[in-house]
Amino acid sequence: MNPGPFSTERIRRIFLRIDEHAERSTRFQQIMAWLLLVLGLTVWTAAQTALVALPLWSRVLPFELDDILPYLLRTQQVEECPLQNCPALNDLREQILVPSPDPEVARERAYAAILFRITILSCPSFCWG
Question: For 107-121, what is each residue's pLDDT tens digit?
């Protein structure tokens, strides 16, 4: 009776030959170590990719809905006031950019002015789509 190519005895002999060869060859051990490392990194990368990609592919809502809101608001602002000189923005400029004698208020207004310049007066290129 022929045991076949996948018999336990045949597999055991193959592993014994590999083990004997590994004991004699340092190069073989190095190759096996690198193969194990590459195999482990491949499995880890595939698992991490699956953990991230599968939930993103199955989402019904857009990514990070709370991050999309500023873009929507900025788009509406640019559509209604493209030159950035409408009364509402002028009123905000007056409130934020006027200096104050109180140092605490002046510091808060300075922070607000920086944010105002970055978010309101900056180039609205991300809104034109």
Answer: 888 887 777 666 655
